[in-house]
Write a structure and sequence with these properties.
Elements: H1 17-30, E1 34-36, H2 37-48, H3 62-80, E2 85-91, H4 96-100, E3 116-122, H5 127-132, H6 137-154, E4 158-159, H7 167-180, E5 189-191, E6 194-196, H8 197-200, H9 208-220, E7 224-226, E8 231-234, H10 236-241, H11 243-250, E9 265-268, E10 277-279, H12 281-290, E11 294-295, E12 298-299, E13 304-307
Parallel strand pairs: 5-13
Antiparallel strand pairs: 1-3, 2-3, 4-5, 6-8, 7-8, 9-10, 9-13, 11-12
């Protein structure tokens, strides 16, 4: 997705605030419902200059632009709520540096690294209803079956690093070194909420060609993603829309810092009779930097597991 996708007609000398919101919503749709905060800020800057107070915004700080974006999203969500949709801001588990590396430098403005994405989601109360708005009953059964295997795969701890060159592994190690002030050995274990395409092709009610086509559809809709190892996992859209169901059905736990679900970052195995905890990379960094190096009697520096 290029930052120059947003097309503002030259015939519109001055934009109303509602037109501005419509352009931002259009931009999010062009990004297939998931847009990195910095990418959306760049789009806002292009259209804000066409508004009544456009000249004033030329000297705004990043914080002012972020506040303006949040204000516009909140206003537009009032209208979207009538259709059972909303735009929410979520943190990606891979952390701000890895997330920011997903997009290239934008214009000439210096944006800080950010792990935040704006996601257009269905706000219907029932997960069945959320799925039914875009998938057939047959496709929904495959999605449910796939989610079970993806979660089951993520709960298995692997000895060694599944991908030794993974950017998230490097980022977690950098965080640990920066906090301790010394070199730290890599953790011994890792896990990944992903499964191979071959495993998903074993779904009996569909043939291999149908499964391959549906996986590509789910990737296009930002429900699934495929990593560089060719494995399939849940993208942000699926995690956000199905969060409550995933937690209830699979006994997953929310991040101890921000109280939302993440399937990337750091896993800390609890002591006896304590569940494992899963942390966003940035939440993990915040905690060991500002709170402490232990959590419920377990060292966060030495006893972690990479969730990649």
């Amino acid at each position: 997705m290029s930052e120059d996708t947003l097309d503002v007609s030259d015939s519109l000398d001055i934009l109303s605030e509602e037109q501005l919101c419509r352009y931002l919503l259009q931009f999010i749709f062009e990004c297939r419902g998931i847009c990195h905060e910095n990418l959306l800020l760049s789009a806002l800057m292009k259209v804000q200059e066409r508004c009544v107070n456009g000249a004033e915004s030329s000297s705004w700080s990043v914080e002012q632009w972020q506040s303006r974006l949040a204000e516009l999203i909140n206003k537009w969500n009032v209208k979207l709520s009538l259709l059972d949709y909303k735009i929410i801001r979520v943190n990606h588990g891979i952390g701000k540096k890895c997330a920011s590396n997903m997009i290239r430098n934008l214009d000439n403005f210096s944006f800080p690294d950010s792990n935040r994405f704006y996601v257009y989601v269905n706000s219907k109360t029932s997960d069945e209803m959320k799925l039914a708005t875009r998938f057939s009953a047959r496709e929904i059964e495959f999605i449910k079956w796939s989610l079970e295997r993806i979660i089951s795969a993520g709960l298995k701890i692997h000895e060694g690093i599944l991908d030794d060159d993974d950017a998230l592994v490097k980022e977690i190690d950098l965080i640990r070194r920066s906090v301790t002030g010394s070199d730290v050995p890599r953790w011994d274990n890792s896990c990944s909420f992903t499964v191979g395409s071959m495993e998903l092709s074993q779904y009996g009610p569909m043939n291999a060609l149908e499964i391959e086509g549906l996986i590509e559809k789910l990737i296009h809709l930002k429900w699934f993603y495929k990593n560089r190892r060719g494995e399939v996992g849940m993208d942000l859209k699926a995690i956000v829309e199905l969060e409550d169901n995933l937690i209830e059905s699979f006994q997953l736990v929310r991040c101890p810092v921000c109280d939302t679900l993440t399937l990337h970052g750091v896993m800390i195995n609890g002591q006896e009779n304590q569940s494992a905890t899963y942390w966003h990379a940035d939440c993990y960094q915040h905690y060991i930097t500002h709170v402490g190096h232990d959590y419920l009697g377990t060292s966060l520096i030495t006893n972690g597991i990479y969730v990649i």
